[in-house]
Amino acid sequence: MGLQRRLLPSISALSAFEAAARTGSFTTAAQELALTQGAISRQIKALEDQLRTPLFVRRDQRVTLTPAGESYAVEVREALHRIGSATLRVMTAPQGGVLKLAVLPTFGTRWLVPRLPAFQKANPQVIIHFTTKMEPFDFRSEDLDAAIHFGAADWPGAVCERLMEEEVLPLCAPSFLAAHPIREPADLVALPLLHTTSRSEAWKDWFAAQGIERHEGAGMFFEQFSTTAQAAITGLGVALLPTLLVQAELQDGDLIPALQLPYRNPDRAYHLVHPAHRAHHPPLVAFREWLLGECSADITVKSSR
């Protein structure tokens, strides 16, 4: 530990280097940090002396990073970002109660956020910082504690805890159904079908479950379920949508089942995902316990209908 401390440059030197590397100018870095150009130059020279490596090439009052400086700048920038994030977490929640969570956009807005007041009431010491992620990512390169993921439990380098399966149902606008009578799955084959890119195989799987093989359905693709649902409401076609994400549209009658044939893929589900070393992070422990309870209650309500 003593050797490691001796190897650590000062934060002021690292900040001066990062600013100069990012802006390509000692003068601009000095203005950004409210220092003199001479102070920036001395900080960087001291850092180069400590590293025993030149970080900049100085030529005609211009500076450019050396190869060593370029690679060092990337890591220093990431380290300073992490220190800044840790400082913000302590400032905003002195008890260390910050959970940095990645969520799927429609799941977050339609299912999770409406339930959050109950979590906040039970856990006022926890502050959740949300970010949106559509695809799995490497926790080692992201400043995040956990994620809510849909798919198979195959997230490399992370623990996946199954929350609940997703039930999908072919839905459309009442006016669309009136204009296109649908009595059986085969009737859908010739109709415009609406797709969501994150579930590109959904219609194919649904048709296969109804005994209709190798049919994917022609129609528009949308990036998010909320847009797919709106397209169905406007009468553009039939959408295969997760019922848990369109409860308001079903209750209001904006969407109705084209057929009462729900489908669940047992190999794909919602999961709470986190690195193993974050398993005992107090905010994550509190959120996990609450989330499992909410998912269990949601499943119980559906099974009782």
Automatic annotation (TrEMBL):
<dbReference type="InterPro" id="IPR000847">
    <property type="entry name" value="LysR_HTH_N"/>
</dbReference>
<dbReference type="Pfam" id="PF00126">
    <property type="entry name" value="HTH_1"/>
</dbReference>
<dbReference type="GO" id="GO:0003677">
    <property type="term" value="F:DNA binding"/>
</dbReference>
<dbReference type="InterPro" id="IPR058163">
    <property type="entry name" value="LysR-type_TF_proteobact-type"/>
</dbReference>
<protein>
    <submittedName>
        <fullName>DNA-binding transcriptional LysR family regulator</fullName>
    </submittedName>
</protein>
<dbReference type="Pfam" id="PF03466">
    <property type="entry name" value="LysR_substrate"/>
</dbReference>
<dbReference type="InterPro" id="IPR036388">
    <property type="entry name" value="WH-like_DNA-bd_sf"/>
</dbReference>
<comment type="similarity">
    <text>Belongs to the LysR transcriptional regulatory family.</text>
</comment>
<feature type="domain" description="HTH lysR-type">
    <location>
        <begin position="9"/>
        <end position="66"/>
    </location>
</feature>
<dbReference type="InterPro" id="IPR036390">
    <property type="entry name" value="WH_DNA-bd_sf"/>
</dbReference>
<keyword id="KW-0805">Transcription regulation</keyword>
<keyword id="KW-0804">Transcription</keyword>
<dbReference type="InterPro" id="IPR005119">
    <property type="entry name" value="LysR_subst-bd"/>
</dbReference>
<keyword id="KW-0238">DNA-binding</keyword>
